[in-house]
Amino acid sequence: MTITEPTTVSTALDRARAALRATLLEDRVLIDLGSPGLYGRTGVFEHVYAAVDTAAVRSMADLQSSVLRFPPVEPLAAFERTDYIASFPDLAASISAFTGDDRAHRALLAARERGERWESFLEPADLMLAPAVCHPVYGLVTGTIPQQGLWFDIVGDSFRREPSLDPMRLQAFHMHEFVHIGTPDSAKEHRDGRIPAMRSLLEGFGLEIDVVPANDPFFGRVGKILARNQVEASLKYEFVTPVYGDAGEATAISSANLHEDHFGTSFSITTADGETAHSACLAFGLERITIALFAAHGTDPASWPADVRRALAL
Amino acid sequence: MTITEPTTVSTALDRARAALRATLLEDRVLIDLGSPGLYGRTGVFEHVYAAVDTAAVRSMADLQSSVLRFPPVEPLAAFERTDYIASFPDLAASISAFTGDDRAHRALLAARERGERWESFLEPADLMLAPAVCHPVYGLVTGTIPQQGLWFDIVGDSFRREPSLDPMRLQAFHMHEFVHIGTPDSAKEHRDGRIPAMRSLLEGFGLEIDVVPANDPFFGRVGKILARNQVEASLKYEFVTPVYGDAGEATAISSANLHEDHFGTSFSITTADGETAHSACLAFGLERITIALFAAHGTDPASWPADVRRALAL
Predict the structure, then answer these.
(1) Do the bridges between strand B66-69 and strand A38-42 make them parallel or antiparallel, or are there none, so unpaired?
(2) What is the tens place of the pLDDT at every residue in B28-66?
(3) Final residue belonging to a domain, choices A108, A130, A152
(4) Are A1 and B126 an interchain contact pair (Cβ–Cβ within 8 Å)?
(5) ipTM exceeding 0.90, yes/no
(6) What's the pTM value of the predicted model, to 2 decimals?
(7) Residues A123 and A175 in one domain
(8) Which residues, in sequence order, are CB contacts of A301 under 8 Å at separation 6+?
(9) Hey, are the CB atoms on A105 and B219 less than 8 Å from each other?
(10) Which partner for A72 in A157, A177, B190, B237 could form a disulfide, CB atoms 3.0-4.6 Å apart?
């Protein structure tokens, strides 16, 4: 099991992460499932999580987005069209299943009995865990979109294979995303026009927020160049909050992303004018916002400041 | 890709399933994702789904269960303790991830470029998709439970690898489960005492309901014996509704299950008297109930009978 944090050298950041994790576990906000970055969540977590989600949806209500929900797995064919494996192989996760008969099953169980691994008895199932909740939407929008563009309200499971003891970095989490597909201008307007409202929503939760240019965690040497290009082109802004104070960099809890023609090209989506469609996505990291709230205000929401409770309708 | 339905011989049941699937897709209740048993869900689906879930929770409110939520994946170690791979290998799904360096990544991409499968570049990640939402709870309850027992309210993702064109049989779905861990008597009371209320809740939705002894789909030849034993011991009751009329058997949309000491033994849970704990689980199949409602009343909830709308607070 690879753990991204060092376990022998303890930095101030390591200690701050360990302290938050210990508090969340001791106060029964999260429950350790025995694998880094996977937690059970209790009633108090769910209560705040639902309040965060409701407030996020309310802040985007005027968009009148079409609601779409997707399962936590996606067909391999759809995954392939996003080229995710080229950019983020280390975060991807594929699914295998058993397709054998009684005899193959007995062989699997015999190997298991001997203490051997039995995954080699399974076959790839042509399914991947969904790494980004907005990916499936582009495959559904083919051909020419209406003049005014399209808006989608999508919430779903994301899985990224990065086991970590940082409670702000889960392997399985949820994003609530508001996606627009339209022209270069309307995509940029969707991304930029909403940044002040998202910032003030998160600040209303009593969180200290900065909006910073950011990059996705592209893999490897080529990835370093892609990441630099992304920052230079100002494609991604993150809403960050100093969960660990001075011990480390502020952590992203939401983002505003311009994809330019990336998905329009990959999925052959065109505007009414016959140009390649552009897209943009506003994303709320639901678990990260929730945990940032517990980190900022403590594990008992009844004792949170009155204006924070009001902003969350708690 | 294995599809459980024959594609050449068309029975009355096949035709009924295909007709319901076509209606749900044409009326934009579900969206085809290109893999049997995986669908996108639109606003109208989510509206009914949330109403079903809220009504189910309300019907169990007096239990004052502890809320627990789990991610769609579970650690292999936890999965192993349930012995699921021995009984249901064909439904299980394991997760693999890429752990290589830049060079291995280039080899993966080269294989992909040649049109070859690239899953062999991934390694087992010690994670499984969760096949049953109540499984993780037993690992969290260790040692001796309180005299009065424990109650849990769990909702989560289930994944079962059974690709099907029957819209009532999804690969990824959600169950809302109410679990009790206690004595043999209290477990049986939790299971049996709630059956009339569950039946009347589902009948209040305007569904024709029968409660029948049932079995889990144990794998292989030995599985046939296990299934028969389960029925004979009356361990599982299913709430079934005739989604396809006379064309096929009624479909289960909820269940009431007695595990006896199965999980108490596997997870070393004991009662205050020092005996092995028993457990029972009441499970609402949220997507199945929702789709049964669309099948029974049509795809426009505004036109559903007034008493059904009232029961669902629509």
Answers:
(1) antiparallel
(2) 999 999 999 999 999 999 999 999 999 999 999 999 999
(3) A130
(4) yes
(5) yes
(6) 0.94
(7) no
(8) A44, A47, A48, A309, A314
(9) yes
(10) A157
